[in-house]
Amino acid sequence: MAEPASQTDSAAIELSKKSSSDSRSAETTMIEAVGLSKFYGPFAAARDVSFSVKKGELVAFLGPNGAGKSTTMKMLTGYIAPSEGHAKIAGHNMMDDRIAGSHRLGYLPENGPLYPEMTPLGMLEFFADARGLAGSKKKDQIDKVIDICDLSSVIYKPISKLSKGFKQRVGMSQALLHEPDVLILDEPTAGLDPNQIRGVRRTMRKLSETKTILLSTHILQEVEAMADRVILINEGRKVYDGDVEGLRTTGHGDLNEAFHELTGQKEG
Ligand SMILES: Nc1ncnc2c1ncn2[C@@H]1O[C@H](COP(=O)(O)OP(=O)(O)OP(=O)(O)O)[C@@H](O)[C@H]1O
Predict the structure, then answer these.
(1) Is 123 in the pocket of ligand 1 (CB under 6 A)?
(2) Domain span at residue 187?
(3) C-alpha 219 to ligand 1 mean position (Å)
(4) What DSSP letter does each residue of 13-45 carry, written as one string?
(5) Where is this region: Disordered (predicted)?
(6) Is 83 inside a domain boundary?
(7) Which one of 125, 141, 156, 259 has the largest count of C-beta atoms within 10 Å of its C-beta?
(8) Assigned domain for 93 exists
């Protein structure tokens, strides 16, 4: 399907977003999907999905429920193998060079990690050990992610007793422990109340100052609040890749309308 934003519009906005001083680093591709497909029997959960995310971008990966967002993210992270195509993180092919890619990548899976009996501190120590962090480096990294994710008030409570907002931030802290420069976050605000959403978005904004982020969501307000660029997927296929304003234009000034037009979803 043709991409609605004109190349001229996209190029102009891209230029205005990036200052000349960071334009060189912005050319580095950090996340790359090349013809990714995933078949379950005859059913295609993702079909020929290609896109790239450059260093420093915060891109929303938008689509209705069941569109194939999680499946694509799992292929990008090397968690499942594609049926066709390949994925690269910071230039590393996630099938045959996955360990090197994983060092650069923090992944928050859908629903976050579930270690209900552990405390956030215990979980972070466990993952720090698993990642080979030791001594003062281990302590410093744990302190740093507790600070970034605002977890200091809950580090000794069992994760099972925490609110969903804190659970998501605990999941985020684990994804950040090894200082990755690429983050893939699968619906980090799903199921949260408005205050919790504010907290998680604040954390993501802080992170976006230094990291490249791909963030999945099916909420249009999330796209408006967080991202400059949006990739829209429907029934496993990419149907839009461009800036938020271009998407709005597709819907004659209304993002909801654009979503409905491009995904065939009817209201009500
Ligand atoms: N292991 C599997 N076996 C069969 N079908 C699957 C499998 N995993 C996902 N699917 C199907 O693939 C489609 C895409 O699922 P996926 O979880 O990627 O969607 P999503 O966009 O993340 O949706 P949501 O927003 O609801 O999480 C859905 O129809 C889902 O039922």
Answers:
(1) no
(2) 27-111+180-261
(3) 17
(4) HHHHHS-GGGHHHHTSEEEEEEEEEEEETTEEE
(5) 1-26
(6) yes
(7) 259
(8) yes
